[in-house]
Design a protein that fits this description.
alpha/beta, Rossmann fold, 6-stranded parallel sheet, 9 strands, signal, AB_hydrolase_fold, hydrolase activity, AB_hydrolase_1
Length: about 260
């Protein structure tokens, strides 16, 4: 059979039942959205906890190109999920889920994991500087200019990554995270949020009190502003509590999923 014909046949046979989130379950589908300087593998341990308890899970690869653009991407990625959805965002991914969830009737809850929950018109840069404590700017490495002239890709200096991003993660693992980090555009961090779904959808928050990317004061302030149903503060937790404390993160997600 011709290669193109084989591919067409394979696509035709690949039904939604084969996609995570479309399996038969009486529980909501959990959709996980990573943030800047990370990738979907940052949710691995959280996924293991959730799947053990019967939750369908989909970890979306966040493009990290811009809030509206990334929000549109997440919406397209989950548009065929008919079941109730809990959208979970880490860091910049919080801005993305707050945009993506707007107008999605089957999103029943939002969970912000050390994440931004911006008001319309606020950017990640605005919120990072609202209260003192972020040391991210001084930890960034050499930026990479984009070929299309749309700004630069930002990375954290690998030497500074463990202390800045993942201080409570074993050093060997943090170094691997530094080497495999995904960049975000400077424009994405400065883009004003076009929507604020947390104003309409019940929200839950969890963060560490030793976060160096987003000041803990800012994280608590955003949770309070959003009338968080429950806010968990992890003592000594870094910016990546979903890696260092996956059980606590998964537990909060499950509470959001089971809330009435």
């Amino acid at each position: 059979m011709h290669k193109i014909a084989k591919l067409a046949l394979a696509l035709a046979l690949y039904t939604t039942s084969a996609i995570p989130g479309f399996t038969q379950s009486n529980k909501p589908t959990i959709v996980l959205v990573h943030g800047a300087f990370a990738d979907s593998s940052s949710w691995n341990e959280v996924i293991s906890h959730l799947e053990k308890h019967g939750y369908p899970v989909l970890a979306v690869a966040n493009p990290l190109r811009g809030v509206k653009r990334d929000g549109d991407y997440v919406r397209r990625a989950v548009k065929d999920i008919k079941a109730p959805i809990v959208l979970v965002g880490h860091s910049y991914g919080g801005s993305v889920i707050s945009d993506a969830a707007a107008g999605m009737e089957n999103v029943q809850a939002l969970v912000f994991v050390a994440a931004f929950a911006p008001e319309i018109g606020e950017s990640a840069v605005d919120l990072s500087g609202k209260f003192p404590g972020s040391t991210l700017a001084s930890a960034l490495g050499e930026a990479v200019a984009l070929a299309n002239g749309e700004g630069k890709d930002l990375y954290i200096d690998q030497r500074k990554f463990p202390a800045q991003f993942a201080a409570d993660v074993p050093l060997a693992e943090a170094k691997l995270m530094a080497a495999t980090q995904r960049p975000i555009t400077d424009a994405a961090l400065a883009e004003p949020a076009p929507k604020a779904a947390w104003k309409e959808i019940p929200s839950w928050f969890i963060h560490g009190d030793a976060d160096r990317n987003i000041p803990p004061h800012t994280l608590q302030w955003m949770a309070d502003r959003a009338n968080s149903r429950k806010t968990v503060v992890v003592k000594g937790g870094s910016h990546v509590v979903m890696i260092s404390h996956p059980g606590e993160v998964a537990k909060l997600i499950e509470q959001a999923a089971s809330a009435k």
